[in-house]
Every structure is written in C-alpha cells, then in structure tokens.
Amino acid sequence: MAKCICQGNLSEEEIIAKDAKHVFQTYGRQPIVLTRGKGALVWDVNGKEYIDCVAGIAVNNVGHCHPRVVAAIQEQAARLIHTSNLYYTDIQPQLAEKLAELTGMDRIFFANSGTESIEAALKLARKATGNKGFISAEHCFHGRTMGALSITHKAKYRAPFEPLIPGADFVPYGDADAIRNALDSDTAAVIIEPVQGEGGVIIPPAGYLEEVRKICDKAGVLLVFDEVQTGMGRTGKWFGKDHSGVRPDIMCIAKGIAGGFPMGVMAATEEVAKNFSKGDHASTFGGNPLGAAAALATINAIEEERLVERSRDMGAYMRDEIKKRCRQDFIDHVRGLGMMIGVQLKKDGTPLVDKAREKGVLVNCTSETVLRLVPPFVITKGEIDRSVEVISELEL
Question: pLDDT at residue 288 above 60?
C-alpha cells in the first residue's frame, strides 16, 4: 500500500519551517502544530492536550470529529464527492429543505465560505433593487474578498487594498437613527451582524433589530443579516435573528453549518430570490455532496443532542464562572449570548493568548481588548472550569 504523504514523523520545528518556506505568510499562527481533535479537546504533534475555546473560530460547534459527521463524510466519500451544479444530486435539495425550515427563508444558495455567501448577498441585493449602495456598521466584519471587504469597517483590513467597491456607508452599531439618516435613493441594503463577532462580541440594544426592520420596510430597502458566526446555535438559539424575531430579506450562514467542512449559504425570501436568474451567480463546489452530507449530519447532531439548548445553558454557566472568578483589576465586564462570549479586558489582551496556550487553553483576542471565547457546544463543565481557572490566573 502506498504511503500517505499527509502523514509522517516530522517534528514541530520541521513542520513550521516547511510552512515558512512554502506557504503564504498571511496568518499570525500560534507556534503549535495540531494533529488531532475530539469534542472540545485538541492535541499537538508533541501530544500536549488543549481545551479549545476557539473551535476553528466558531466553526466546530458540535465538537471536533463528531462521530455522526465523520461517518456521514466517510459514507458519502465512498459514494460521490463532486459533480458540479450542472447536475442534480439526491442530497443537496434535502439540505436546502432543512435549512429553509430552520431559517424561515424560502430559497438557498450554496457556497463554500462565509465571505462567498456575503458576495452572493451583495449581488442579489443589487439585482433585486437596482440600487448600488450598502449601509453596514462600524466595527463589523463581513469578509476579505473585494466585495465583502468593501462593507467591512476596520481600516487595517481595507487600507492596503483601496480603492474598494464604492457605495458603502458605515454607521454606529446599535443606532437605528443613524441607519435612517444614512439611507438615500441608491441604497440597496442594510447589512448587520445580529451580534458582532470580530468586533468584540457586541450585542445590540433591545429593540434595535426590530427598528431597523421597520426602517428598511418603510424605505423599500433590503435587510441582510450576516449570521456567519451567530448561526447554527452559537448564540443559544438556532440563529442570532431568533432573539428578536426579525426576518431579514437575505441571510448568510457558514462556519458551524457543516461540522468543520467548508460550506457557506445565502438564504433569501422568495420575493427577493426570484430576481436571480440562471447564470446570475454560481459556485463550482457549492453544495457538493460531501459538504451537504456533513451539514445534514451536523444539523441532526444539533437537534438530537439538543446542542442549541446546551449552547445556551453552558454559555451562561461559563459567563457566570468568569464573572465570579476573575479579578476586577483584570476584567471590565463579561458579555455574550450562548457560547459566544466576550471578556472585556482593561488592557490589550494579545499577550494573554500565548500565556493561556502555555497552560493548555486556546483562546482568541479580538479588537485588542476582548477575549473571544467560542468553544464547542459539547464542552463539559469540567473543561469550562479548567478554562476559567486558567483565564483567572492570567496577568496583563
């Protein structure tokens, strides 16, 4: 039997050196090489165990290598991996039907990532309205491709690649009047994260999304929800929009949808979706049989294991433990919904990522002063307790 080239006995140093030599150096990687994962735990090439409170940046909602997802991928890989969307497959419409049921939307477009789903939404919004402009929020993050980047706020992402696609206005998040005042005759859509993720786990004030919905309806402007990070149970409900009961015209989903397999989705109402005709948009790999099987298995796992409820309950437990155990000179406050938690620090928290990793807990710092904790929903209380213990012992 031929030896698999993806396996070997390379040391951590050799692997990192190969990366440095051959891979674009566009990531600020942590100096560990992960080789295995199960549940909320991962192990590096040296056998060291970590509690993963990053979860692939809010991707591994059902945990690493969930048995149901692994089995579905293995079974589908033996049947059919890819055909392109020139043909029907038996599994893609099953997934589309299930997603329509969960989201309350009518039609589903399959892509491969969050930023691809955003790109599809921008095109659909322009086609449906005939307008060109977009309104998004300060501190938002929608992706790094040219369209998604054009509606992403942070200057450090935008500046090196300007001029970007024109027509984007940014307003303060949580300020409905600012959206009302920014609207003009060429606005196609308002695009909002129900909870800002990269911006620091920012939760909007009560009534904000409802008021934005009213403003868009009155102005004849589309409302787009970026649920790339907030979807699939991350906030303790299936989608971030479910906390407000607001139905957008378009919504984008990715990250946790397929248990770690790359997939993005744009969902839309029938009234908006009908504006896309054959040839208006496409994706070679979107909704491929392997990804569709992984997504259906992920949804089944979430439903049967009641992981949305677990996200809600364990997220509340983790927030409470952080509040009780962390020093007041260290933490300003803790916020979040479900398993989407932001620990607001009083100083730059970037150095804490290294310190926590050395103690066996993987965390992420965003917006310089926020520890973003987005662990798998299957994390145990014992693993939460250990993570909080490590965080409480960190020093700025």
Answer: yes
- CA angle, corner 396, sides to 30 and 47, nearest 5? 30
Residue 144 assigned ligand-binding role: yes
* DSSP H stretches of helix in the chain: 12-22, 55-58, 67-79, 92-103, 114-129, 146-150, 155-158, 176-182, 208-219, 270-273, 289-304, 307-325, 350-358, 381-393
Q: What percent of the chain has pLDDT over 70?
A: 98
41-44 vs 187-192, strand pairing mode: unpaired
Does residue 227 have a known ligand-binding role?
Answer: yes
Question: Position of tokens 């993987």?
Answer: 362
Strand 222-226, strand 187-192: pairing: parallel
Q: Alpha carbon of 10 to those of 35, 71, 358, 370: distances in Å?
A: 12, 29, 22, 35
CA distance 111 to 288: 9
Task: Give the three-class secondary structure for 28.
Answer: coil
What are the structure tokens assigned to 30, written together? 């942590």
Query: How remote is the C-alpha of 156 from its chain's centroid?
Result: 20
d(CA 125, CA 322): 41
Average pLDDT, the chain: 96
The reply to whether 28 sits in an annotated binding site is no
- Domains of the chain listed by start with CATH number: 37-62+307-393 (3.90.1150.10), 68-304 (3.40.640.10)
Does the annotation list 114 as a binding residue?
yes
pLDDT of amino acid 9: 84
Residue 141 marked in a binding site: yes
Least confident of 33-47, 76-90, 269-283, 328-342: 328-342
> Which pTM was predicted?
0.95
283 is known to lie in a ligand binding site: yes
| Pairing, β 49-52 against β 107-111 | unpaired
User: 262, 360, 376: which is closest to 44 by C-alpha?
Assistant: 360
The rounded distance, in Å, linking the Cα atoms of 142 and 116 is 10
Three-state DSSP class for 207? coil
Distance CA 297, CA 61 (A): 12
